[in-house]
Design a protein that fits this description.
Structural class: alpha/beta
EC number: 1.2.1.3
Strand content: 15-25%
InterPro entries: Ald_DH/histidinol_DH, Ald_DH_C, Ald_DH_CS_GLU, Ald_DH_N, Aldehyde_DH_dom, LUC3-like
Strand order of the largest sheet: 14-17-18-13-12-20-21
Enzyme class: oxidoreductase
Number of helices: 15
CATH class of the largest domain: Alpha Beta
Domain Aldehyde dehydrogenase: 30-477
Catalytic activity: an aldehyde + NAD(+) + H2O = a carboxylate + NADH + 2 H(+)
CATH superfamily of the largest domain: Aldehyde Dehydrogenase, Chain A, domain 1
Number of strands: 26
CATH architecture of the largest domain: 3-Layer(aba) Sandwich
Shape: globular
Length: 490
């Protein structure tokens, strides 16, 4: 339990939904699972239709206040929330570690994103009225106004980081938000909402854990004006279909099968650690992570050997506060089974493993990392997103050919190019059909950089100032300067 400045203590062992500014439990409870041990964590309430209706009603009331609060004042409040969240950084990091399986150093980084996101979005300057035309006959202006109520449906791989790209834009632009964390990782999000309540009018920022019924209830609720969803492409299509019933706006950040292209002019010892992180960070559970490696034939064997040595040097296992792990378990049993299927398919087809890896039998969901050595382009491990620590590495010779292979996918979320010749790197990057490309770095999304998907990797986008435009309504006023007043009587 922690206290700050004499405020009410925050208990990090008791969890409630946050509705209308108050904690609320439920007659139905469930528990998240610690992926390092396979054991249940704390009870957490399952929200009902009645809870959602109450949350929407409260948000409608909160919107009347929050949307009229000046932008600068909203920003100041968000900065206060960010400062308050910092005071609980250790407790929040421990929650992220326990519910998500992240090694403590990376859990601490994600906890920092919660406060940092509030501070970044809270510091953005307000929209200005744009004058499109102004002459003796007409004045045309364009303004951006608060949208209403946002329903945010968040994934389990980065429960705080993905949520902040929805919470921050909603709050600063004057909208209210109802966040549904993944039932696999509800704890850190519910605590973030609880901490924020002391600074906000009731209904502005609410959070509720739910089962498989809650997501569709949110997407279909007539009182919600926008859905922001991060998750799989298959689920995103269902979200879009459901939201269409009430013509909700949607932002969808969906799956990807991102590729790294490594050119022959790099120093393999210099790039191997970064390429390895690109493929295996968070045990491969990052939407924009490198899922496929394409390495030029002149350095293929050397880079493969170097990456194998880098990954062998990492500790992979259950996470505790002092475990010192570089890679933790995958987050849940469902994903563990999906990854097991990739291992089995590679073995069945006789693909060579440069790093054999291993899917453990529990009690947690640890998977030792694996590298598949030059499987065919038709292989399941190449064609499908594995979202786990098993990565294929393939040979390329011709630049046009490798670009064609990289783009031969229905998705287009991210990608990376590793090349000493920056002009060549830029040229290759411009040909990759994806929303975000990194050059000479592993994938590092930033709050100030717009992130969006091409093809079936999404609609709309989030992050940066540009991302705010997906969280507002735009209004254009045409004012004709004609005399329409009543004539004065003599």
């Amino acid at each position: 339990m922690a206290t700050t400045n004499g405020m009410k203590a925050i208990d990090f062992t008791t969890f409630n939904n946050i509705i209308a500014g108050q904690p609320r439990s439920s007659s139905q409870l469930h528990q998240g699972i610690n992926p390092s041990t396979g054991k249940p964590l704390w009870d957490v309430p399952i929200a009902t239709q009645h809870d959602l209706d109450d949350a929407v009603k409260s948000a409608q009331g909160g919107f009347k206040v929050w949307s009229k609060t000046p932008w600068e004042e909203r920003g100041k409040i968000m900065l206060k929330i960010g400062e308050e969240v910092k005071k609980y950084s250790a407790e929040m990091a421990k929650l992220v570690m326990l519910e998500g399986g992240k090694p403590m150093q990376f859990a601490t980084m994600e906890a920092g994103v919660a406060s940092g996101g509030m501070e970044y979005f809270g510091s953005l300057a307000p929209f200005q009225t744009e004058v499109i035309d102004d002459n003796e006959d007409i004045k045309v202006t364009m303004t951006h106004i608060p949208l209403g109520i946002v329903g945010a449906i968040c994934p389990w791989n980065f429960p705080l980081a993905t949520a902040m790209n929805k919470i921050g834009p909603s709050l600063i632009t004057g909208s209210c938000i109802i966040v549904k964390p993944s039932p696999f990782t509800p704890y850190s999000m519910l605590k973030l909402a609880e901490i924020a309540q002391q600074f906000l009018p009731p209904g502005v920022f609410q959070a509720m854990n739910g089962d498989e019924k809650l997501g569709p209830l949110i997407t279909e609720h007539p009182g919600i004006q926008k859905i922001s969803f991060t998750g799989s492409t298959a689920t995103g299509k269902r979200v879009m279909q459901s939201a269409a019933k009430t013509m909700k706006r949607v932002s969808l950040e969906l799956g990807g099968n991102s590729a790294s292209i490594v050119c022959p002019d790099v120093d393999v010892k210099k790039v191997a650690p970064g390429v390895a992180i690109a493929a295996f960070f968070n045990s491969g559970q990052l939407c924009v992570a490198t899922k496929r490696l394409y390495v030029h034939k002149d350095i293929y064997k050397d880079l493969l050997a170097e990456i194998v040595e880098v990954v062998k040097g990492w500790k992979t296992g259950p996470t505790t506060e002092d475990s010192g792990s570089m890679l933790g378990p995958v987050q849940n049993e469902m994903q563990h089974n999906i990854i097991k299927n990739f291992f089995e398919d590679c073995a069945t087809n006789g693909y060579e493993f440069a790093l054999p890896g291993n899917v453990g039998d529990g009690p947690g969901f640890v998977v030792q990392p694996a590298i598949v050595d030059n499987p065919p382009d038709s292989a399941k491990i190449v064609r499908e997103e594995q979202f786990g620590p098993i990565v294929p590495m393939m040979v390329w010779e011709n630049e046009d050919d490798v670009i064609s292979r990289v783009n031969d996918t229905l998705t287009g979320l991210g990608g990376a190019v590793w090349c000493a010749d920056l002009d060549r790197a830029q040229r290759i990057a411009s040909k990759i059909e994806a929303g975000t490309i990194w050059i000479n770095s592993n994938e590092k999304p930033r709050p100030d950089a717009y992130l969006s998907g091409h093809k079936e990797s999404g609609i709309g986008g989030e992050g940066g100032r540009y991302g705010l435009y997906h969280y507002v309504n735009t209004q254009v006023v045409h004012m004709y300067k004609v005399d329409v007043g009543k004539s004065s009587k003599l």
